[in-house]
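[Q] Does anyone have a clean structure-token version of this?
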Amino acid sequence: MPEDRAAALQQLAERIADCRSCPRLVEWREQVAREKRASFAGEPYWGRPVPGFGDPAARLVIVGLAPAAHGGNRTGRIFTGDRSGDFLFASLHRAGLANRATSTSRDDGLVLRGAYVTAVNRCAPPGNRPTPRERDTCLPYLARELELLERVRVVVALGAFAWDGSLRALGLLGHAMRPRPRFGHGSEAHVGPFVLLGSFHPSQQNTFTGKLTPRMLDGVMARAIDLGDR
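[A] Here you go.
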């Protein structure tokens, strides 16, 4: 039942938010939350692991790398309060998957329809680079989300790290692939009952240079919706 899934996802979110398994990441996320960026000096920081969020009946899951130090690590919601999130949620809104085009806080009224947003790692990492051990420690959370989201058929990986992490999480669910499919923007791979889609990450490095345009991301979302409706 959807209510049961929602309750189980909420329990998982609470477990994720309490995680202290990776000492380096715990130290970093809490240091950032104490020192803060000057532009957010008057705001409280979440400073904890960031759970996924979205529709418990979602047919597609969008996977990022990790929370941004002054984005999700500040707001407590993945892709919320940073430029990457602005780019992503605008695309989800155009696709009819979100009720609004921006997301600034956990209580801003954003609602996802048919979609769920999460990440490979749940703590903001120094230099935006989790270690392999930190990645692997966090992967069971992503695998469990995919397990609980029973209607999901499409996984959209934002960037090569998310592509690799998604394959590893699906492997934990018994859907390993050999050889592993290569990441690319628009790449597709059938992994067990899922289709994995690749997209360049909506980082400023990609969006400011034109490597990823709104039209390109919209195309991936349209393909995800089409596959999820089959």
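[Q] Thanks! Anything notable?
[A] The CA atoms of residues 86 and 101 lie 7 Å apart.
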